[in-house]
Amino acid sequence: MTEHKEVKKKELKSEKPISIFEKLFGGINLTWPRLIIAAVLIGVFVGILMTIPIFKDTSITRIGAILYWWVLFGTIIIMNSKSNVDSALKCFVFFLISQPIIYLVQVPFSEMGWGLFGYYGYWFKWTLATLPMGFVGYWIKDQKIWSPFILGAAIALVLLEMIGEFSDSKLILSGIFCLAIAIVMLGALRSWKHRAIALVVAIIFAFAFAYINRAKPEDYIFGLTYDVSKYNITTEKEWTVESDLGERATLEKDPVYDEEGNETGETVYTFHVRGNGYDFGTHHFKFIAPDEERNCTLEIVAENMSEKELICE
To answer: Is residue 6 part of a domain?
Structure first.
């Protein structure tokens, strides 16, 4: 009897406790009812966050504007699914339920009303993308040589968002969230070697995607124009502009037209700012003439594609 007890104690000691990563990425019994309930609750929670005035244009509401949290949710779903098809369908249904609910909750509190759903197109594209992403992502569970490359591509999306968030001083907290989520996602792999490979792949992909997206003018999703004459930036002097947006911020001489639409022969400087989703945030510009300079800032808001006034010293 005593020997039996000692053997049992040894067996209990030899059992390795499940880690938080093992629980999160494979230890959840993710049934369809649980998935649907989670999608509804998360959608309602995020929708409420988006309606709270003090959180507007802060890191808190970025969960409703960019991908990073949703990539984590998708990874958790994938790692707790039972097959490639199960993974693809669960990711798709989760997004299909949660995203419209976020907008639905905001409708009564927004001046745009049902017009908010005009922004749903972006998320619907990602909802469709979850089908192939969920199917392929399931192979992360194999813990084979291809697993870190698949996970690395997913983490790259998070790092890509992080690059954009850290470019705006008001969104530093959001950038930290991105970094934390990327680290947590590495826990989906059991091998430290695989985690290292996934991290390297993610960094390479993220910076490559950032370069490609910034380098393609045809992908610009906004174009802003400002009359800078009120800042004494006139064609009497030759002005140029320097900024962190590079060629996406230009100062151009445009003709002046009379009431009948005819050119008057005069010209004015017009400031043009173009960009895509990675250019949201606060940007700084320096207008330079031979004997003077003007320092200006402009905040481009991601949530509603709007912009604030160009502010110059």
So the answer is: no
